[in-house]
Amino acid sequence: MAGATSACIFCQIARSSTPTSLLHSDDRVVAFEDVNPAALRHYLVIPVEHIPTVRDLKRRAEDYTLVSHMLDVGRMLLQRDVPQSKQYRFGFHQPPLNSVNHLHLHCLALPFIPRWKHMKYLSLGPLGGFIEAEKLLDKLKPE
Ligand SMILES: [Zn+2]
Ligand SMILES: [Zn+2]
Q1: How many angstroms is it from 95 CA to the middle of ligand 2?
Q2: 3-state secondary structure (DSSP) of residue 29
Q3: What dotted CATH number matches 9-140?
Q4: Of 30, 74, 87, 129, whose CB has the highest number of CB atoms within 10 Å?
């Protein structure tokens, strides 16, 4: 697997070699709680494979199905755990605004707590920022 290193904290979590408890795991993805929650509930879904950022994804079936699987898992977990939330948001930080260089889908059950945290999850249009999962899927969908 290209680029997988023992220094990557998310690779370690995916291999269950940390105390982080997994909310979901299958052969392609794992999910766990964000250590710095920005909302009522805040989960991360990551691929088991080390893919650094959204820039490493291409318009092809393989990447499209991976991201749509990540989104399905995130939706399933939030709907199960926080059905009372009025709004969910799912998306990715684009470099250079991403924190950890291992692809991770932010799954947020709103409201943002504290409220200013929403600033971190704004789309900045052509400048990048946060990209909604649905929008990324449009970009990856094979012709
Ligand atoms: Zn990694
Ligand atoms: Zn992030």
Answers
A1: 10
A2: strand
A3: 3.30.428.10
A4: 74
